[in-house]
């Protein structure tokens, strides 16, 4: 049977989203299944079963998962040790000694427990200096003794190897790994120079430790999922999303699991960047609300803003990642009272037991319960009618927990939950727009995730955002975005030289060496020469500054053009430029293997009258009038391009609902997407 199906599956905190693309017809099908936290692979296979996809016809399976992230947050990783230079055992434990901003004046603050106990850290004889020159040769006997202590005495099953200045010369790390593997072949080894070849010892050690910590559990998960897929007839390519966009083969992912920790949200950002280009929107804000979190990111000049350092709990990660602002606020976020003040999140009901209205044993009211009480969600049509909701139970829980203690009606309490969530959302969006020199009013807001279309028009009204774009099947948009992801790998080398003093010939030679590594990685992942693109970047800062900016450079290295590009970006970001010399920190190469993207359909246009899609009216809460009023209810599947209508209205598509308050209007664009705007805009 010919292979013509692509399948994308994204695991969220509450549901698993599965999306199927038929490459012959461009037809898309979408289904959801409950997340299974105890056995995450089961949730993936259940979602595929809901779709009814014949896996023998699947040419490509692409997956986004936060398994590594959850392993760290829940402390479920393997017993991990550190092998470092003698005298530097405490690099990881000491860190930077900084206090998080939200605890700056908390004199009782204590750092969370470390992932690695001090007795699980061992030093070995051997040392490089800051230029990568050997000061002391590596002592094989000290490596064997350290490994014996960690494995036999402490029971460590995964070891992070990170030596001082090894990013300049990986020889000592590789030799130490060979010695340890020879003695203990079953122990998992993670080398810093295989993960990141950049300066900053603590950050590089932290990245390597996190890799070692989640690698055993991630390998087991991928092996289990591969086995389950193969048992159901799958023989195609298995890709996993990267945190910084793009994808990699499952084989590469098992050796680099840290690159997957934010892979779920990354799928939505990839899809958003594609849509920004296809819809002609250079500036777009992504607004993804799922069951447990809200993720927002800026698409600027058609590209997502990226960073080369992420944060996992309080641990730094030197990996490419989208600059996503995340807060613990989603459909499953719990509403509670703190000394008489209403709060929403960050605790979530998750998938088990879930919101009270799910009827699975949940007792604490959530945002989803509030949406049911406010009339935004039809209890009989939730998930397309496959999962009925218990509206009375949601109302009772909200009344007992919030309404009665505050002396409010159930509707007023539910409206308060939405108001608090909206206030937190405004703060998160301001952090990535206003506080970075962007005017949110010139952006389009792309709403996706199960609760994104519910809250996005309210956010647009609050912040004056000109337009909300709601794609088809928004609750599965991250999975759809994965279908447009290229295969990507990133490589870097630390340079630490001023731009004026840098030897351009040496810089070019270094670029060519790194490009060879990138090309080899893409070739190993099955990318042909015709589909390969290599992008060059330099990480630069003014000499004396701490913060840096990333500048894309051409094949010809011209210092004047590089400085101009840096200063344009610096002025756009910070509003000024300086006369200081520029310092090169890192040289970067992104290897890209282009893949076929799903095309955007253009359904037959309608006559502008949405009457055929009108299912009736029901009372719901209108934020414009602050009252329960009749809302027109439209069936998303029956709306056609060109249809227009005004709020208050609800657009129901089974897996999500778009809430359009009074004072806003909707137009269906040529692709069938909903464009929600203010009536006076």
From TrEMBL:
GO biological process, one term: glutathione metabolic process
Superkingdom of this protein's organism: Bacteria
Cellular component, GO, one term: cytosol
Location of the Hydantoinase/oxoprolinase N-terminal domain: 6-182
Region (Disordered): 595-615
InterPro entries: ACX-like_C, Hydant_A_N, Hydantoinase_A, Oxoprolinase-like
Molecular function in Gene Ontology: 5-oxoprolinase (ATP-hydrolyzing) activity
Domain Hydantoinase A/oxoprolinase residue range list: 204-489
Residues in Acetophenone carboxylase-like C-terminal domain copies: 505-672
Protein name per its UniProtKB record: 5-oxoprolinase
Species: Phytohabitans houttuyneae
């Amino acid at each position: 049977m010919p292979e013509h199906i692509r399948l994308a599956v994204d695991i969220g905190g509450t549901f698993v989203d599965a999306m199927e693309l038929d490459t012959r017809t461009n037809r898309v099908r979408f289904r959801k299944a409950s997340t299974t936290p105890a056995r995450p692979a089961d949730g993936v296979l259940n979602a595929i079963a809901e779709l009814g996809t014949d896996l023998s016809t699947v040419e490509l399976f692409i997956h986004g998962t936060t398994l590594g992230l959850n392993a760290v947050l829940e402390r479920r990783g393997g017993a991990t040790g550190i092998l470092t230079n003698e005298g530097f055992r405490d690099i990881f434990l000491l860190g930077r000694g900084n206090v998080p901003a939200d605890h700056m004046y908390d004199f009782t603050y204590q750092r969370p427990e470390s992932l690695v106990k001090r007795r699980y850290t061992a030093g070995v004889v051997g040392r490089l200096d800051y230029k990568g020159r050997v000061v002391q040769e590596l002592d094989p006997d000290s490596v064997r003794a350290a490994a014996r202590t960690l494995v036999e005495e402490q029971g460590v099953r995964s070891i992070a190897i990170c030596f001082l200045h090894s990013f300049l010369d990986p020889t000592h790390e590789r030799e130490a790994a060979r010695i340890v593997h020879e003695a203990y072949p079953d122990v998992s080894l993670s080398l810093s120079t295989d993960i990141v070849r950049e300066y900053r010892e603590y950050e590089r050690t932290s990245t390597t430790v996190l890799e070692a910590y989640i690698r055993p559990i991630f390998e087991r998960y991928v092996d289990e999922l591969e086995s389950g897929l193969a048992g159901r007839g799958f023989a195609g390519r298995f890709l996993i999303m990267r945190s910084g966009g793009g994808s990699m083969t499952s084989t590469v992912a098992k050796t680099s699991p840290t690159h997957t920790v934010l892979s779920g949200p990354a799928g939505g950002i990839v899809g958003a960047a594609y849509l920004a280009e296809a819809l002609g929107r250079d500036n777009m804000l992504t607004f993804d609300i799922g069951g447990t979190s809200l993720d927002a990111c800026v698409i600027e000049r058609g590209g997502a803003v990226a960073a080369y350092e992420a944060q996992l709990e309080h641990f730094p990660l030197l990996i490419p990642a989208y600059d996503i602002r995340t807060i613990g606020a989603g459909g499953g976020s719990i509403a509670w009272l703190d000394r008489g003040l209403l709060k929403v999140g960050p605790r979530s009901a998750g998938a088990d037991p879930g919101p009270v209205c799910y009827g699975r044993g949940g007792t604490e009211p959530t945002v989803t319960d509030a949406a049911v009480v406010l009339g935004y969600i039809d209890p009989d049509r939730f998930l397309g009618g496959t999962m009925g909701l218990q509206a009375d139970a949601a109302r009772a829980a909200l009344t007992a927990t919030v309404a009665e203690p505050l002396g409010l009606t159930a509707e007023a309490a539910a409206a308060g939950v939405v108001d608090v969530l909206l206030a937190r959302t405004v703060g998160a969006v301001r952090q990535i727009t206003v506080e970075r020199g962007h005017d949110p009013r010139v952006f389009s807001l792309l709403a996706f995730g199960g609760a994104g279309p519910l809250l996005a028009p309210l956010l647009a009204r609050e912040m004056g955002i000109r337009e909300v774009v709601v794609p088809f099947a928004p609750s599965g948009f991250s999975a759809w975005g994965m279908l447009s992801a290229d295969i990507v790998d990133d490589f870097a080398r630390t340079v630490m030289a001023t731009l004026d003093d840098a030897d351009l010939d040496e810089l070019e030679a270094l670029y060519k060496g790194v490009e060879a590594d990138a090309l080899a990685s893409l070739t190993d992942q099955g990318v042909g020469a015709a589909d390969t693109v290599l992008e060059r970047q330099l990480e630069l800062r003014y000499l004396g500054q701490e913060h840096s900016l990333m500048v894309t450079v051409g094949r010809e290295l011209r210092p004047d053009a590089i400085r101009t590009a840096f200063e344009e970006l610096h002025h756009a970001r910070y509003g000024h430029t300086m006369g200081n010399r520029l310092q090169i920190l890192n040289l970067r190469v992104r290897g890209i293997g282009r893949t076929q993207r799903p095309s955007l359909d253009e359904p037959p246009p309608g006559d502008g009258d949405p009457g055929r899609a009108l299912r009736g009216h029901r009372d719901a809460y209108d934020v414009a009038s602050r009252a329960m009023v009749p809302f027109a209810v439209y069936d998303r599947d029956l709306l056609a391009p060109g249809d227009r209508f005004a709020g208050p209205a609800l657009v129901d598509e089974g897996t999500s609902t778009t809430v359009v308050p009074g004072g806003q209007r909707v137009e269906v664009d040529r692709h069938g997407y909903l464009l929600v705007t203010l009536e006076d805009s």
